[in-house]
Write a structure and sequence with these properties.
The chain is built from seven helices and twelve strands. The protein is α/β, with parallel strands linked by helices. The protein has two domains: 43 residues, no CATH class; 151 residues, ATPase, nucleotide binding domain (Nucleotidyltransferase, domain 5). The two termini are 28 Å apart.
């Protein structure tokens, strides 16, 4: 059943993406259009919509392969087919939380990039052995821990590893979770792309982009998308649905 407040849709068109199994599928667009009194368009798949959005990147080759790395899945779409692989940003967060003993909220920040060790109240040791002095002392209970910069300052998350050791482990996690999954999806898709456009929240991470790039053949050009030339690497699906409305 479709429930909508009378007059809510107004004269605006709707774009509809429906999840369905291999069972007989009936396009709901005509019935929705009849009930709501506005045009309704059904997108073939979320991956298809993401590709339409990704190809709005200035200079993108229309034949480019699209890789959308989200929280739960990695969507890979070519011109004719698409593949959805389980395991993406949320799996990476869970791995970091399990290895560091931190919460999922802290792991969400810890997975993103370089960490420092809180050597003393005013001294931070970087992953490259650099030392940074800061004026505001860290909390005594955080001394000796690895930490990353979060929304409200330094977030301690691990006491068992050196900064360089954590860097190697973090990069290996990204290679295994992101890179290996993209390569697996590409084998399933059975395409040999010349260019790949990366979109999705996880692709704001330079290390994540590098992990995916290294998992692809060396002759493939890989770049981060910029949706509509101004929205960055996010909102590919939403903008792709808008483009599908013509």
């Amino acid at each position: 059943a479709v429930v909508a407040r009378a007059g809510a849709p107004g004269a605006r068109a709707l774009a509809l993406a429906a999840l369905h199994a291999d069972a007989p599928y009936v396009d709901p667009a005509p019935e929705l259009s009849r009930r709501l009194g506005v045009p309704v368009h059904t997108a073939p798949s979320e991956a298809w919509a993401a590709r339409q959005g990704a190809l709005s990147t200035p200079g993108a080759d229309p034949a480019s392969l699209m890789v959308d790395v989200g929280a739960g899945t990695i969507d890979v779409a070519g011109r004719a087919r698409d593949v959805v692989a389980a395991g993406a940003g949320e799996l990476l967060t869970a791995c970091v939380a399990a290895l560091s003993g931190s919460t999922m909220a802290v792991a969400e920040w810890a997975k993103r990039g370089p960490a420092v060790r809180l050597e003393s109240p005013h001294l931070l040791l970087g992953e490259d052995a650099s030392r940074v002095f800061q004026g505001t002392p860290v909390r005594p209970e955080s001394l000796g821990a690895l930490a990353v910069w979060g929304p409200a300052g330094l977030l301690p998350f691990d006491r068992d590893r050196a900064p360089g050791e954590w860097r190697a482990l973090r990069l290996r996690l990204k290679a295994d979770v992101l890179g290996v999954n993209v390569a697996r999806a590409l084998r399933t898709l059975d395409e040999r792309p010349r260019t790949v456009v990366l979109v999705g929240g996880a692709m704001g991470d330079d290390e994540g982009v590098a992990s995916v790039s290294r998992a692809l053949p060396s002759d493939v050009a890989v770049g981060r998308g910029n949706i509509a030339g101004s929205l960055g690497h996010r909102y590919a699906v939403a903008y792709g649905l808008l483009r599908s409305l013509g």
